[in-house]
Amino acid sequence: MNLPNGLTIRPLNVDDVDDAIAMINACERFDTGELMWERADLLADISVDGFDRDADWLGVFDGARIVAWAFLEPPRSAYIDVAPDLRGRGIGAELLAWAIERATVRGNVRLGQTIDDSRADVATYLRAQGFTVRHTSWIVRMDHPDEPLVPEPPPRIEIRPIDLPREGLETLTMFEDAFSEFDDRVALPIDDWRSTVIEREGFVPADLLVAVDGDRVVGAAFLIESDEVWVDKLAVAATHRNRGIARAVLATAFRRSFELGYRHTSLSTDSRTGALTLYERIGMHVTRSFTHWAIDL
């Protein structure tokens, strides 16, 4: 790579995770004032099937400090960040070229990155490189300064923490089946769901709420606590939709968040799901928006 003098580059390894997260969060803090990544996220992402720890991530270093990185997330996404004090020196362009080449070698047919809509400069650059808009996503938030109401699930539906290991596979399969309905989505192996949910660093059963009809899991929400409660995944089985289960699961998540001392709860949704109106109807509001830019290889 053609990097500025004094900078070096090498594949990252597990020992670099904390330093990489520090650099990413410095970028987030500078760009938006909000943090989106933590150690457990990256550890989960490098544990999924199809990620090559020796070849699918790179760090750019100024001495011992990580000042930029590129990360290929299976099946076809990339993350590229450059420390604010080193932007405008061509580092991001070099990393993007590497990511496209590496994705091509892996046999990807597409590569994309989701960009905060406040980064108009990045969007302009990606468009000039042949990337096009594929979908929009939003972070939405429910404010609950006062104790939320007790959820009222539909008849015969019980909402509670998951019973592991008995319901683990069934719940992860329900997630995959529900998300597989989205247009243009690549299927994820159950082992990837396991790595990013129930094997995620710090996971406890109370983090995975399930909606149960008799002895069948028909809905679930995976919660992450990190300076707030984040509803990382939410799904209801196709056979049980339009019955108020998602609302009841969310209401349960809001109460758990409140009980943990938080006065708001957040989640992400995108234009492929059509769920934004549901969240707005129950009182959630958009706090950030993003665009997913991709290029066909």
Would you spell out the secondary-structure blueprint of this structure?
Elements: E1 7-11, H1 17-31, H2 39-45, E2 57-62, E3 65-73, E4 77-82, H3 91-106, E5 110-116, H4 120-128, E6 132-143, E7 157-161, H5 168-179, H6 190-196, E8 208-213, E9 216-225, E10 229-236, H7 245-259, E11 264-270, H8 276-281, E12 285-296
**Biggest beta sheet summary:** 8 strands, mixed
Distance between the termini: 21 Å
What structural class is derived from the secondary structure elements? alpha+beta
In CATH, the architecture of the largest domain is 3-Layer(aba) Sandwich
Cα Rg: 20 Å
CATH class of the largest domain: Alpha Beta
Q: How many separate domains?
A: 2
**SSE pattern, N- to C-terminal:** EHHEEEHEHEEHHEEEHEHE
Question: Treating each run of at least 4 consecutive H or I residues as one helix, how many helices?
Answer: 8
Low-confidence stretches: none
Side-by-side strand order of the widest sheet: 5-12-6-11-10-9-8-7
What's the helical proportion of residues?
25-40%
User: Care to count the β-strands?
Assistant: 12
| CATH 4th-level superfamily of the largest domain | Gcn5-related N-acetyltransferase (GNAT)
Q: Look at the structure and give the mean pLDDT.
A: 96
Kindly identify the CATH topology of the largest domain.
Aminopeptidase
Any idea what the shape is?
A: globular
Task: Determine the strand fraction and express it as a percent band.
Answer: 25-35%
Describe the structure.
The model has no long low-confidence stretch (mean pLDDT 96). An eight-stranded mixed sheet has the order 5-12-6-11-10-9-8-7. A four-stranded antiparallel sheet has the order 1-2-3-4. The protein is of the alpha+beta class. The two termini are 21 Å apart. It has helices at 17-31, 39-45, 91-106, 120-128, 168-179, 190-196, 245-259, 276-281; strands at residues 7-11, 57-62, 65-73, 77-82, 110-116, 132-143, 157-161, 208-213, 216-225, 229-236, 264-270, 285-296.
